[in-house]
Every structure is written in C-alpha cells, then in structure tokens.
C-alpha cells in the first residue's frame, strides 16, 4: 500500500511538472535547517500568490515535487514545519477577538466576525487548497494525509494538523458529490486490480476468485469521487440468498449452487472495504448501505431483506483485556461453574487460555463455550462503548448507517482469520429500509444501539 501510494504521488507530480515546467528545489533528503528555510520561502510565495495564480500553481507543484525527494526524516520535518510555522497567528486572533467584543453596530460585528474567521484559518490551508486545485490534486492531498498519519504518533502538533486535514477533506467528500457505480467483470482491469489490492475483509486470492465474486447471484458496488476517477473510495460486495446468511463459507464458495439474483429475497453485504487510508475518519459511510440497498431494490424488486455478515474485529482483544483486568462480572456464576466445575475462581484463567490460543481449538472443546462467548459478544457489541459510540469499529460503522444488531452466528468463520477477528463468531446487521434514518439519528445523537430481541435475550444469558 505504501509503495503504491508513493508511486501514485510521483505520477501526479510528473504530470504537473510536464504541464507547468516546475522543478523541485535541490534539498538534502533530511531537510536540514538551511534547506527548510529555503523551502519555507517557496511556501510563503505560494501562499501569498506572489506573481499571480499561475505562478502560485507552479510553486505548489514544485513544493510537492520537493516533498517527494525527502526521506522519512525529511517528510516529518516538512509536516512539523506546516504544523508550527503555518498555523494561525495568535496575535491576529487576539486582535480580531478584541474587535468583535467591542463591535456594537450589526454591520461592524459581521465584519469583525469575518476577520476573526480569517484569523483563525491557518495559512497552510491555502497551500493545501492550491494542491487540490492541481490536476488530480485531491488524490495527492488524500495520499499526503496518509503519509502524515504515519508520523503523527505522540506529537500533538501533527495530530492537530491531521485533524485539520480531515476536516478539509470532509468538505470535499460529502455524500452528495460521491458517485455510486456498479462494478462487474467487464469493468476495466485496472479497477479490478485495485479491488484485489484494497479488499480488507476477505482476501481475493486470484482472478478466478474475483470472477466468482462478480458472477451469478453476486453484485459489487463502488463509491467514487469525480475528481478521483478510477480510484474507489469504498466498495461493497453483495451475495443474493433466500435468507440472511449465518455462515461465511457458502458466500465465498464459487462452486456451490447459487440462486439467481432475480429469485433472491435477501441481499447480504459480506464485505465492505475502505480503500483510501488518507480518508480515515472522514464520514464517507453515513447512509452508504441505504444507497446500495435502494439501488438493489430498484433493480430487484423481489428483495425483502438487507443485512450484513460481518466480523467482530475487536471482540477477542477486548475479552482478553477484560479477563486480564478482572473486569466486573465478565462471567456469571453459572458460567464460571460451567467452565471450571468445582473451581469457579479458575474459570477466567481457563477461558483466557482458550481465547488467546493462536490456532482454532477443536470443535469439541469449543462447544461448551458457545453460550458464554455468544453472550459476551452480544455485550461487547451492544453495551461496550468508547464515549457514546460502540467500541467495535465495524459495529460503529453499521450503527452509524442505521442498522440494528440482528443475530450472532456461532463459528460462522472457523478459519484462523475468523478466530483472530472474532473467535469465529460473526454478526448480522439488519438494514430495515423504513427505519434506517431513525436508527441512524438515535445512534449518532444519543448512542442508542438498536438490537433484535434475540440479541437482547443473550445479554441476560437467555437463548435466542
């Protein structure tokens, strides 16, 4: 992924240089202090549009080209320069605030508010906007943020710069401008290659595997930005079945008999992949599934159910931590006695040894754990929080999209990858089209998690 990102940035900069004749300024790859000052002079002239807008565009291209000549240390110094030297001017902000406080006339107040807004805008934003204004510049800034995120750890200034870039990109990637497109076996090979590379849930192992995922009873959709043609932002793989899927195997088995799409009653979203790491935290997903579901229902009016078969990627780590920390009531008294008859105080240690195993334990040894792990998975999905949001990232994504937690499926993915992601458990999130917007609003405003009655019963130790 890193190599591909840098190759893409290099190709973009080459196009800019061939069209405007700009060249990188010669600097040491580590961007020592003397070279950093020289680069700052170029950035200053670019921000101020010295010589006009065309000159500013050439300078933006030259700055980007110079950035790509830097090594890891040099790039970190470049980001630190943007973070510290091109932030807002505190003195200008203080002056603008004072003017706003003293303003009495409504027109004077509006002028003071505009001056304050301008003073609060870091000067580096004008450089970033100039990057975006270049051909394929939006893609360059997305990749620039991905590079920044590899340097920000432990540095508040770089974390603040990252958040600023996230807000900037949010303005450019609002849902209204994104385009939903169907991806088929006849789509350009370059796009299909990207799907193979970006697949983050269930690895695409070959071209035959790819063809099977786009064949009978299957659909694939991608979201694209008009300024990033051919670069998927998110793609969704869908399997048509008679009912909500409870097992991953049949969805990925291309030799199994499949129902024709026009005969299916259920659309299962079994893989959703975010393709651009530079867009992490940018809310691309809100109502994404609803758009795909509405497209599917328009094409296939026989569809009655829309659901996912999703991993629970944080469950295993959460449970290991909870057992290590002795979190209150991880196990009920009945569960402790079930796991360690006659020695319930050893139950947590016994469960941890199983959960932390690198390989999937034999089915016979796992069978007694089914009610325990299923209940704990329901607790993890419905009750565990990071602030007001669900602790599990996949749960947060689907709940934000208006889904409800529908059903937990024991050993739905009994592979090593499935064990690592969720102890073999997978979850169905149900998208009930008339209730999607209400579920979304309840979750994002109050943190309310919609869950089916069967899932609620699991929380109290009952059976579905």
Give your account of this protein's structure:
This protein has helices at 2-20, 33-47, 53-67, 72-85, 90-102, 106-120, 124-133, 137-149, 156-172, 189-198, 207-213, 248-252, 288-299, 315-325, 333-339, 347-355, 363-366, 370-382, 393-400, 416-422, 436-446, 453-459; strands at residues 179-182, 218-224, 234-241, 266-274, 305-308, 385-386, 389-390, 404-409, 426-430. It has 464 residues and is α+β, with helices and mostly antiparallel strands. The chain has a five-stranded mixed sheet with strand order 1-2-3-4-5, with helices on one face. It has a two-stranded antiparallel sheet with strand order 6-7. A hairpin with a 2-residue loop joins strand 6 and strand 7 (389-390). Helix 4 (72-85) packs across helix 9 (156-172) and helix 18 (370-382) crosses helix 22 (453-459). The longest helix is centred in the first third of the chain and has 19 residues, at 2-20. The radius of gyration is 26 Å and the shape is globular. The model has no long low-confidence stretch (mean pLDDT 90).
What's the Cα radius of gyration?
Answer: 26 Å
**Biggest pleated sheet:** 5 strands, mixed
Bin the helical content: 40-55%
Shape: globular
The strand order across the widest sheet is: 1-2-3-4-5
Number of strands: 9
Strand content: 5-15%
Counting helices, strands and paired strands, the structural category is: alpha+beta
Q: Oligomer, anyone? A: single chain
Number of helices: 22
Average pLDDT number = 90
Low-confidence stretches: none
Q: What is the straight-line distance between the termini? A: 42 Å
